[in-house]
């Protein structure tokens, strides 16, 4: 198990004085706002160390006997110094006879210079020496004969040294994303680094890496721009390896699909990986580094059966041929630092084939034989260097593992999520005690059921934080692999995930170091600290909207266009505001940053907005057909088509204009070889007719105004009435309210298509009590009365209420807005900011807490909400929980009212991998709706109570239907509360043309 320095107190320096000191020595504003994670810096009395000064760069020395990966990384430091200072240092392999300044790069035990400094106690390597991938950076005065001053970058092993080198690069202003996201490097005449010492201790997770998967766009781009004769080859992998090291990763599962070249096709690939210091493994269907998509068929043709038939990839049929197939690769790659996947699945991510083993127990026996065979091969061909070995119980293999597959104790168990960011199960006590340890395979991008998300980075970082924190608390610290699709578009999510893997304690749920703070710090390093907070706010809202529904999951009639002030329109209004915010900030950035900003911030927001927008207009078009609209029907069709065209245009801009066309082919929402994101929604147009007529549809009604518009003095609502033309010729119309305190946004005119009339109440003038009022819409010889139900309890009652207030036939609560939280039994509810469909959610922690199944009112952590009911009855209460799984346990919570008995609600605990069932619905919607009944025996204030039954349950929203809740995708806007929601916002629909 990797050992991190657990009790190293931070040295007495303040962030403000540190930044002031950096500014004083000319450090660029693009430098990290904070010290690197898992690092400690001590104050120094000496001046900052110059890397470039007066047009001269300080030489970089690395011993020729050091690891080739270290020597290569020192060359990158050369290039980085030149990027910043305009002067390239010399890279020396022999010490100079005389130098006033020198940079020394070396690995403990491989660099005599570094070892001598340690032996002479000139270099402090406590907490570094003997550790995994640790390093120290320190200025030493007169370190060597003839050298006055040196910056020492020393690692505990080769990657420790490499990370120390790249840490120095980032500190002088070279982003890890300088190439992959076109982050500019600010030029300066003087380039310096603080004196230090700075130590970077062991990572939280030993192996940290990515899986390039479903990579058709990356393949297209690579073929067009990097290697026209290949489909992802060495030139592309060089860029991938460098990015991984700059992000402090060390591990890769390479591209593996039919449209890509398999990794070992080009022998330079594994050689390059070793030269860079990257550990190469393979995914769950690729046992012992074999790519079945490309390699099995040629092997089978070379090893036909006695009757000339080709062997099938079935161990119960052809064990000898398959064993030899694996052995050949083990022998071929034995000299490289590799990770060896054991076990077996079918070819190309398909299920295990076992013709002569049909039952689960029989398949377990087969899998045990397979593992024994593979272990024998590794012992004979690779020897003791055959580590790590990993076993991935993915999909059907998890069932076999749980049924009794025996995985050797020194093999790392890699636990997969459900492909949608929810861990399926975590190790038990016995599995945590295994010397091989545990890892995870986690998706930030996915192809498959029930829907794919490959286009944009849309998983909330707070969700990633929550799940990674949970797995770490369960002892999973040996290996974290992230499925990142094509790499591009996952830049923020990947940076965060690898940052967590390096220092899992760096970011927390709520407070100064929450997830949004990560984005602010990360964006500040890329674009400058002055822009970090605003970019973080934009990205947080972007993730929140995606948590409601990923843009790749949008479909027809998902969001209501008639309820809750036009639920879909309100969502699009939020996107519209977000896009304007992103564009406004982008216009303020220096020109050099525009490409990077477009890639990382503006395109994702704009693309998600347009994907939602075209489906919004298509839904309005379909509704217009049902309503019998005339010209307006075609108007909505035009708007839907225009949004699709605009989406294609911004994608074309990304591929052909941004960074001079560097990313040609990298972005495509609709690649041909994978399940497509939502495409062009079908719309209906009607032929022109020289007629006119007046139609009315009030909020809450698809047609007409049968359902009254509801108004409450607590929520002070705004409701809409659509007035439309049933033909194509202009029609005059008027609207009139029966009471002067009913306000209309417009009272008439001439229309060809449609207009939306907003209705409000002047509460200062409205009489107390319940009133039925009408708004009359007239025109074209027609007259429609729109009923209003106005409930005014008066300003005094509004001020005196203490909890959430029922109105419009429901109560809607954001879960974080509690009256009281009660911790019990060592467990509690904590706020996780940036999680869920609103601003935050509540999680029952620690994730390792024991379940509470009886006497909940005295033993279980509790949430309390004060609710004011207007009437009595038995009402459904729905708890919106965020999906989480436990395939060996349960996902339960309990709900009750006042001191009445509670009802235990059981959530979906198993990932079925199906379409259309509860699990599929949960991952598509991002919530699971669990419903119980509560009985209100008398009007007035009551206490709604929620209890943890199982740990790591996360609650987002709560809705009580008291008889008037309309059907919609989202929860209704939050109810009035004097503290949490004293002034509920109006809910205007999208401000769009001709609406």
UniProtKB/TrEMBL annotation:
InterPro entries: GH115, GH115_C, GH115_sf, Hex-like_dom2, TAT_signal. One of its GO terms (biological process) is carbohydrate metabolic process. Pfam families: GH115_C, Glyco_hydro_115. PANTHER family: GYLCOSYL HYDROLASE 115 C-TERMINAL DOMAIN-CONTAINING PROTEIN (PTHR37842:SF2), PTHR37842. This is Uncharacterized protein. It comes from Streptomyces lincolnensis.
